[in-house]
Amino acid sequence: MQTDRLMGIVVSFYPDKNYGFIQTQTEDTYFFYQSELNYQADFVEGLILKRYEALIGDLVSFVLRPNFRPDDPPIATGLVRMINFDRLKMIEMATKKEYLVGTLKKLGDEFFVKHRETGAWVKVTENSLYKDPKSWMEDRIQYWVKFKINRPKGEEKVVAYLLDMPFRGKVKDLILKIENGQKIEGKVVHRSNAGITVVIKDFYINGNLSIKSALNDEEKEYFNQVKLGDFISAYPIDIDLEKELITLDFFRAKAELEVEKVEKREMVLELNQG
Which helix (H) or strand (E) holds 51? Predict the structure, then answer.
């Protein structure tokens, strides 16, 4: 067994199967079991070691041991949980906001909220506001939810209290804008040769514009003139609630794109029949 300790982030975990994966700064990925050999350190009370319950985003130190089969990569073991920086950022934001917003997730039998702004995962505590909390949550997996958190001493003890689903009206408004061909506004936060990402604050969601939507030189020139930090307006085309993204188009509304698809399909049929 290797004695030098490595550092990495828990990038995935499956509590029903008790295993997950850790990724190091060099992007090496290692498999780990959730076992009695893995611990979390409580630095507030002193270095008190307890059994480690993995959470995505945790920074851990670990050692490697050989796999059962010599040809397989080594396994991470002896995990010691250090801290979760995403959760620290989330806790700081919670002191400045009335509530937080996240996506409801389920891992095994446990429910979590993934905070939209930091990506932090927080375990949900059952809420007495609902007659059957588990059933209520089961029906809303991958939905946006409002939540608050408790204020424990250690960030690993943070839990989420669900409040409500804030975006039913917002999603409805977006669908209406798509159907009516109305533009929405956003701020450019990222751009590359492939496209542009914007933050749409009115709807608390990000939007993507693809360079492929520019069909001629004039449209490509317009696309290329857009700079980081610019405020732009574009047509919403589609919503992906799971990925939390809106597809946008500078030049054409969804109805116009649908007409173009039909025309292209008819043209192909005519060519094939001819």
Answer: strand 48-51
Q: Where are the domains of the chain?
A: 6-83, 87-164, 168-259
Q: Is the pLDDT of residue 119 over 90?
A: no
Tokens of 160: 């989420």
> pTM (2 decimals)?
0.54
Q: Please say if the pLDDT value at position 180 is more than 80.
A: yes
CATH of domain 87-164: 2.40.50
**CATH fold for domain 168-259:** OB fold (Dihydrolipoamide Acetyltransferase, E2P) (2.40.50)
Between CA 112 and CA 105 the distance in angstroms is: 5
Q: How many CB atoms lie within 10 A of CB 54?
A: 25
Neighbour count for residue 239 (Cβ, 10 Å) = 17
Contact yes or no for 65/75 (Cβ under 8 A): yes
Strand partners, 63: 77
| One-letter identity of residue 259 | V
List CB contacts of 109: < 8 A, sequence separation 6 or more. 15, 16
| CATH superfamily label, 6-83 | Nucleic acid-binding proteins (2.40.50.140)
At residue 242, the pLDDT reads 56
Residues facing 147 on adjacent strands? 100, 162
- Alpha-carbon distance of 42 to 20, in angstroms, equals 22
Distance CA(56)–CA(69), nearest Å, equals 27
In which band, very low, low, confident or very high, does the pLDDT at 230 lie, cut at 50, 70 and 90? very high
Q: How far apart are CA 82 and CA 236, in angstroms?
A: 42
